[in-house]
Inverse folding.
């Protein structure tokens, strides 16, 4: 007996020591940063915010609109999350990948509890991944389809086995995956099968492990939450959060000016910025969306199948006019390689690309060379065979920005020296146009497309077999590079490939990338503090919901300073907001009467005058008649 | 023709109309496009997901097969599932219909009543100060965009005077059947109701006025006056009552379109209701939701027509005696 125990002890400790050694040799840790910590100078208060549209479903498995995803965000935790373009840890403590890229081992934080008191374990994580992988109707199925299965090895370890190597798995899939409680959803899947796609969870089933607990949901009106005071990362500073759904932006701005809401997510036209800034309690946050708005070209149709012709078009676009006049400065020039130069995408962006300039004589030169010349002297260039030449541009009728941009493009094309190119802007209902674009029946169009988090999104858009390659671009070299990019695991090699692909795209112009849009998010600074302004999102986001505190809340005894306080994050957008302020300084001075809007008074006055005038005229007419 | 056979005839034709509408709706909504087309430009959506969704909503089957199951389901009162709401169409409608009914039935009734009362006075006293002022206001209100009027009301009553809330139908945190809830509900209800009543009244007042003016020119009014009837009796029994007849059709049909809701009211006041539901069903090509609301809409139009016809028969002996 006395001998066996030490032998067992030694064997076990030897083996134990070998485990990390073996895994250290085999696995590649995925680089995920520490999350910013939040601290509450004061607690309490109700934060009321508004969003520009309403969620239609609270079932996260099918939630697809950004509003639906947003209202579910405060309830659930994720393994990892994007913060200002960087991947940071949340429930995951570490993620390791096997050298062949086929197995991910995820260690999770222990001791996390769901709102109903049940522990969050590896079982829940594995369950969520498996359900997404097995439900092809789920909104996020696409990013999980390369998964073979996920297994809970022990309560804090999950192993994900891949069918094929997917270098973007962590960024594309894990960063968007809310961890769903197995004890609630497994019975639903067993009972309803695919019917879960049409299932609406009740409030008591909206259980997560996140910082907020849903207390009330009124369809079309609001959703309200109370703080999860036992939240494992430290309680949120506010007691309650109410998100109202206000579809009409002008009403939302009235509510903001009145102080009924603290911030608003929804489209706000830049024209109102001066009026908002004239109120000292309101500030503006400007953020950039990564959707690339481009002039789509049907690469299968003549003459758009000629690379030089597409280049000529790229030279004939007045990019500055579109950004400065149509977007009123709220835009960033579109990269010819399509990868946005900011946010999550910055690390893939090739900064050496040469941007096309607005150069009509260069366009004319190329067109001459291709044989597009004005033969009959009517001011328009004819096709090389002498026949009349024109094409169509389809902007969506609902987006006035793109309609105007299309008109600017058509205008510049007409001004090409030695004969213009005739382009007709066709403003049609988008569903009709979209069907034509998908069917490859139209020449050109204006489309906004979202890139995925990981650079592998180039595959869907520019691979000849890409599922969203609406431009019908096909280049065997690009296909080969994209195939390599998707299968490659070494980040440095991937960047090289991504840069090379962007170079080719910039040179061949499968479509003319026009702009990325900047949006305005107004917020009040008088009642709450601790606003976190990230460059790629408005102010209704996870970080704000955790970090915002009421100025009238109950002060909390100062705690040791956190390692990376949220509020010190540098936000580049401030500069833009300030520039906007100076640009409109004169206007602002004219509008110093803060609470009453002079435009509104003017409109009421005009209306009043009209009514009085009409009544008087009618009364006079009656007098004359009698 | 007895009232019973009149009724029977009307009911049979109503049922036939509804069946015809069911068919028409089914094919019309399918001409508008594809409910899943919007997802195609979403980088996260794969062709497999689109396929799975189409299968879930029965769009993988042939049109004839879909039509048969649609008619069958409608007959047993099953409206299917909405794509946009991922829930039964019936639930999506029922979540909103109470708000719409509570807002529109009283506002339509009150504005009909006011329009009738004021219109009779206007027609009766043509050229008076009342007539001309109301006429001008009415023309002005008809010409103003609705949302502008609504925002002016909001601006004056909610922002400047601070009397009413800017958005929503109830405040968070109130339990439904309670006095507080009801007070809060009325507080939110006031401005949308007021705008609807004001606009409804001033629009329909013109119909009544013109109808009254027509009737004043009729021989039987002259006869009644010649008989020496007091002017009060002429007004109430001869003019006002006869002026009501054409109004019943116009004003009665306002109730039929209730499910269409007051879409602008709902948008500006962020008020829940079926109006935006119908609008969204159309723009999202949510076939099943659209079918559901169109069927309810057509049934209510047919029903309202039936009731109007019956009221006619009650009010106007000539209709009953027609063969």
């Amino acid at each position: 007996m006395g001998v066996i125990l030490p032998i067992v002890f030694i064997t076990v400790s030897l083996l134990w020591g070998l485990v990390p050694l073996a895994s250290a040799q085999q696995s590649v840790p995925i680089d995920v940063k520490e999350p910013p910590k939040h601290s509450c100078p004061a607690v309490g208060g109700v934060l009321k915010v508004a969003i520009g549209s309403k969620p239609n479903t609270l079932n996260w498995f099918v939630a697809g609109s950004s509003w639906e995803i947003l209202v579910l965000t405060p309830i659930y935790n994720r393994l990892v999350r994007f913060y200002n373009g960087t991947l940071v840890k949340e429930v995951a403590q570490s993620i390791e990948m096997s050298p062949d890229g086929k197995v991910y081992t995820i260690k999770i934080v222990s001791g996390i509890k769901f709102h109903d008191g049940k522990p969050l374990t590896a079982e829940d994580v594995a369950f969520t991944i498996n359900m997404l992988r097995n439900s092809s109707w789920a909104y996020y199925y696409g990013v999980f389809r390369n998964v073979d299965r996920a297994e809970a090895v022990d309560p804090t370890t999950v192993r994900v086995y891949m069918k094929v190597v997917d270098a973007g798995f962590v960024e594309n899939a894990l960063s968007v995956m809310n961890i769903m409680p197995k004890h609630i959803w497994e019975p639903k899947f067993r009972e309803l099968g695919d019917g879960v796609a049409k299932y609406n969870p009740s409030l008591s089933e909206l259980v997560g492990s996140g910082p907020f607990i849903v207390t009330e949901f009124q369809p079309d009106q609001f959703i309200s939450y109370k703080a999860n005071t036992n939240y494992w990362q430290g309680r949120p500073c506010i007691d309650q959060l109410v998100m109202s759904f206000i579809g009409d932006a002008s009403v939302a701005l009235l509510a903001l000016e009145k102080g009924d809401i603290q911030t608003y997510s929804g489209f706000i036209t830049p024209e109102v910025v001066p009026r908002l800034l004239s109120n000292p309690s309101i500030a503006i946050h400007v953020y950039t969306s990564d959707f690339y708005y481009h002039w789509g070209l049907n690469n299968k149709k003549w003459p758009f199948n000629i690379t030089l012709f597409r280049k000529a078009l790229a030279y004939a676009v007045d990019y500055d006019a579109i950004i400065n006049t149509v977007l009123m400065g709220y835009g960033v020039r579109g990269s010819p390689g399509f990868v946005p130069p900011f946010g999550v995408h910055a690390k893939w962006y090739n900064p050496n690309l040469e941007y096309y300039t607005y150069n009509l004589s260069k366009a004319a030169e190329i067109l001459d060379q291709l044989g597009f010349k004005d033969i009959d002297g009517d001011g328009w260039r004819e096709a090389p065979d002498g026949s009349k030449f024109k094409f169509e541009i389809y902007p969506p009728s609902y987006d006035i920005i793109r309609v105007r941009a299309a008109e600017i493009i058509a205008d510049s094309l007409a001004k090409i020296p030695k004969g213009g190119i005739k382009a007709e802007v066709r403003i049609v209902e988008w569903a009709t146009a979209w069907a034509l674009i998908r069917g490859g029946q139209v020449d050109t169009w204006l489309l906004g497309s979202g890139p995925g988090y990981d650079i592998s999104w180039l595959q869907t858009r520019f691979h000849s077999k890409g599922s969203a390659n609406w431009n019908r671009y096909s280049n065997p070299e690009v296909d080969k590079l994209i195939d390599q990019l998707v299968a490659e695991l070494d980040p440095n090699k991937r960047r090289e490939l991504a840069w090379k692909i962007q170079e080719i795209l910039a040179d061949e112009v499968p479509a003319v990338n026009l702009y990325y849009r900047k949006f305005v998010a107004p917020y009040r600074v008088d009642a709450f503090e601790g606003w976190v302004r990230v460059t790629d999102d408005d102010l209704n986001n996870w970080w704000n919901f955790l970090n915002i505190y009421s100025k009238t809340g109950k002060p909390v005894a100062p705690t040791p300073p956190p390692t990376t306080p949220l509020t010190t994050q540098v936000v580049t957008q401030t500069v833009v907001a300030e520039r906007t302020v100076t640009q409109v300084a004169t206007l602002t001075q004219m509008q110093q009467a803060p609470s009453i809007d002079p435009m509104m008074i003017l409109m009421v006055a005009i209306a009043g005058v009209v009514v009085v005038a009409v009544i008087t005229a009618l009364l006079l007419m009656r007098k004359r008649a009698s | 023709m007895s009232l019973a056979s009149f009724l029977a005839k009307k009911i049979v034709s109503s049922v036939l109309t509804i069946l015809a509408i069911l068919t028409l709706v089914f094919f019309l909504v399918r001409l508008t496009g594809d409910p899943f087309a919007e997802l195609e430009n979403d980088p996260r959506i794969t062709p497999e997901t689109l396929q799975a969704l189409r299968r879930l909503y029965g769009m993988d089957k042939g049109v004839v097969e879909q039509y048969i199951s649609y008619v069958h389901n409608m007959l047993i009162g099953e409206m299917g599932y909405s794509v946009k709401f991922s829930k039964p169409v019936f639930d999506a409608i029922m979540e909103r219909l109470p708000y719409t009914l509570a807002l529109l039935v009283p506002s339509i009734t009150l504005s009909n009543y006011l329009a009738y009362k004021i219109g009779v006075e206007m027609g009766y006293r043509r050229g008076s100060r009342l007539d001309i002022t109301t006429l001008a206001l009415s023309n002005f209100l008809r010409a103003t965009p609705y949302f502008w009027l609504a925002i002016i009301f909001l601006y004056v009553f909610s922002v400047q005077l601070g009397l009413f809330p800017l958005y929503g139908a109830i405040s968070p945190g109130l339990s439904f059947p309670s006095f507080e809830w009801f007070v809060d509900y009325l507080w939110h209800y006031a401005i949308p109701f007021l705008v609807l009543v004001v606009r409804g009244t001033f629009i329909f007042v013109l119909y009544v006025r013109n109808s009254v003016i027509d009737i004043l020119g009729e021989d039987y009014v002259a006869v009644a006056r010649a008989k020496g009837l007091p002017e009060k009796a002429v007004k109430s029994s001869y003019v006002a009552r006869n002026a009501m007849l054409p109004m019943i059709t116009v004003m009665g049909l306002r109730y039929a379109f209730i499910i269409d809701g007051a879409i602008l009211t709902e948008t500006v006041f962020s008020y829940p209701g079926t109006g935006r539901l119908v609008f969204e069903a159309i723009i999202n090509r949510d076939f099943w939701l659209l079918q559901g609301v169109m069927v309810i809409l057509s049934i209510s139009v047919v029903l309202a027509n039936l009731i109007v016809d019956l009221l006619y028969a009650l009010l106007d002996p000539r209709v009953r005696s027609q063969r």
Remarks:
- The CA atoms of residues 81 and 88 of chain B lie 4 Å apart.
- Chain B touches chain A through 66 residues (CB under 8 Å).
